[in-house]
Predict the 3D structure of the following.
Amino acid sequence: MNNAPGIVFGRSPNQTRHTFRYTDALGLDRGSVMDAIRRDLQPHLPLPVPPPNGAPFIGTVTVDGMQLRYHAYPMNEGLVNVGRITGS
């Protein structure tokens, strides 16, 4: 059985649009962005709930030569929401 936390990129269409607005503007493929973030985030899971000092986990990845910064928010022990991805 796999008990690894799930990683989501917004929990509604509006949240998903908000999450990817910068990477969409950069012309990056959402699938490539999600894959890179999942690979980067997976070794840090599960994230502590609540996060230390209320701060999200912040990571960086490179997709198509562009460095991106993402914010990951633990919703509970089984779910992490990536809620912001920007060029850095």
In short: Residues 6-87 form one domain. The helical segments are 13-25, 30-41.
